[in-house]
## 1
Amino acid sequence: MSKIAIMGAMPEEIDPLLAKVENINKIEYAKNIYYEATYKGKDIVIAYSKIGKVFASLTATILLEKFGCNQLLFSGVAGAISPELKIGDLIIATKLCQHDLDITAFGHPYGYVPEGDVYISTDEKLRDIAKEVAQKNSLKLKEGIVATGDQFVASTERKEFIASTFKADALEMEGASVAVVCDALDVPFFVLRAISDSADGSADMDFDEFLESSAKISADFILDMVEAIE
Ligand code: 4EZ
């Protein structure tokens, strides 16, 4: 039986999920709250991790190892890099990287550590389901590279570095760490983000203005995907 983990980083990213799911059972564990629930007859577990790679890997690990989830969907907001992406637009990650991982002093590429990979790919079947959902609802959905780091990017310089170094289309602060966990445990995973800002000088103000509305766009899409998952 499938048990689907749905993760966000912030309360605002999971609240629109909690508003629509049924049979919620709240469990406190490891200084966080996990919500077992059902949606259209499917078992899910929802949690927000808190912001950043460390909290996100902790939560992802618990969702898989303690709650036994056998697939993981991340829902949230992101800063746009690709000029195609406007506020409210959806992007699914083909692969993710850590833009702040840097042992280049030893001649290694950015984002790389020995025995790791610069990029980790998301599950192709889940991406296909996302494309079906987008088509059915006549929604625009971009596929691209998502770069993750423990920084809220609010400068064109940093944004350009991430764009040119990783060919990234969007950036956020959790995706690649969740990817590391799911890849290590061989669990199919998927990352969806709706754009809240453009990671530039006005990113902080845009983020505050659009966090809630963009988070809801992502969450509503994720629930349509849950329905479409076999
Ligand atoms: C992190 N999330 C932002 C959390 C910011 C402030 C209280 C997504 C995100 C993001 N991350 C949206 N825009 C971003 C940006 N410009 N840089 C990094 O996943 C919390």
Note: Residues 9, 51, 76-79, 152-154, 171-174, 196-197, 199, 203, 207 surround 4EZ (CB under 6 Å).
## 2
Amino acid sequence: MTQLTLPLTLPIIPFEGIDGCGKTTVIKRLQDDSNNGLFKACFTREPGGSVVGEKIRSLLLQDLDTEDESPLTRLFLFMASRSSNIDKVAQRALQEGKIVISDRLDASTYAFQLWGGECRELEKFFYQSRNVILSGFPIQYIYLRITPEVAALRRAKRPESTQNFLDKLPIEFHQRVFEGYEEFFGRLQRQSTLVENPLHVVHVVDASVSEDEVYKQVKDIVLRAWGSQTP
Ligand code: TYD
């Protein structure tokens, strides 16, 4: 593992939320703003990001063999991808003076594997591993919050060709994932009020409003993290 040079001042900004929350659109707009020189950022995603992470991504999301693997094996694969992404991509970018914008991070593992996949007995293990992989990194989560009902309506409008396996899972699965996010971020919010300069904070953004309104809030958070204010 690369030695971490502390303190890191810029944060990792993960975008999190249930399928259909609008993450992709928001991240695309941030990419445009970053390309236009508004802030320096490295864009990454999970699973994926690093060379090894991307290989794990195809194993997890495209290779049917992994569908049969146990929840524990799949959990390890998501975590291995994260460890590589943090080590090879995020840490380097932060040290080069870039914000790291990540399409998903560990809240997804908590919500999808532990709650969606009904493996809540792995919670203690999840938090221990999380501490190993992410401790020392400033993280400002952006939780794009929508209810499973609104998300289902949005997903139903997607063209058949762009629907993935998640769109075929029952609403109960998405409901559990939603509850997992609520639990993860609720706990993080409670913890962050207990210390003066929390390393990990969460910004909850109501993602049921218009795309422009959501983006305005997101951009404001990112620019504040970058150290400037929106005009
Ligand atoms: P992706 O095509 O990026 O979906 P989305 O646009 O909804 O983010 O695929 C990522 C999938 O991986 C998504 O279904 C959520 C899932 N996932 C987990 O189950 N656990 C995790 O830890 C992460 C990071 C993602």
Note: Residues 19, 24, 46-47, 61, 78, 104, 108-109, 112-113, 166 surround thymidine-5'-diphosphate (CB under 6 Å).
## 3
Amino acid sequence: MTNQSTITIRRPDDFHLHLRDGEMLKLVTPDSSRDFARAIIMPNLVPPVTTTAMAEAYKESILSAVPSEHSFQPLMTLYLTEDTDPDDLELGAKSGLISAVKLYPAGATTNSDSGVKTISNVYPVLERMAEIGLPLCVHGEVTTADIDIFDREAVFIETVLDPLRKAVPGLRVVMEHITTKNGVDYVRAHEKDLAATLTTHHLIINRNHILVGGIKPHYYCLPVAKREEHRLALVEAATSGDPRFFLGTDSAPHSTDTKENACGCAGCYTSVNTLSCLAHVFEEQNALDKLELFTSVNGANFYGLPLSDQQVTLTKQNQPASYLNTVGSSEFNVTVFDPGFPLYWHVD
Ligand code: DOR
Ligand code: ZN
């Protein structure tokens, strides 16, 4: 399958993606549908996607933003609130529309105000999910002011996630966009019903990229990038082939002006160049043979989806790929993630 300059893999899936709605949805959807077969779509719209009927309508809008020459399947999620109706959720899951439920602790990130304040209030819903085998995708950060932002993931694992998994045995959990060695170690220590997604950007940046030499708002995302030792643990996990780790880009578009702002939004927009970035990262680890597991196999297996029968080829060229710095128009645009190194791997 691989030699030095070409790699052919099953068409990747993105197990954590923000497509937004309205003009932004139209702008960014083709950047994902070009390279990806399927994606788990995050429900943090305004208002959030909290019911099966809302998810159905959202899926239709996404499909109408997919160019006719692309084939792309949005996998819908529901935004968990303390009012989520377990019967609605079960109907949505059984009809095949709903692939997962997303837990945002209230206040953790973009549009998370309607998230969960008291986790035990949602245990009945989580029990129903365990019964029917519907995965819970977790934004794993505590949100209280007394916990330092760089510690929020590690504290969440100890004080919320571990008790939650013990309270609801059999619940299938995906720790979304883990950013710490603590997250990697927690997944490794628990064989059953647990996996984690890793983003493209957290495999590339550490916290210095955000703060050294001036504030770089386009590297600001949540959970915030941590120390280099944590990035190295994430790279090791992604390139290990371990079936519990897979790609969820968390590509999260915000218009450039809302990022370059006195109170800048959190999110990196990586849909455009993710595959080139990942090929670079995996090649550096001599792990190109594990790329397909990470992008196209492990996640599908965890979610019980058939593997894609289409393929994508990447070739390493002498000239870097010429990705745009921004997508959109001069009035409304999104800045594309800059990995900080030239991308020699081109998607054919
Ligand atoms: O950086 C992020 N952006 N992290 C999230 O959890 C949410 C996302 C967004 O929706 O903008
Ligand atoms: Zn996200």
Note: The longest helix spans residues 152-167.
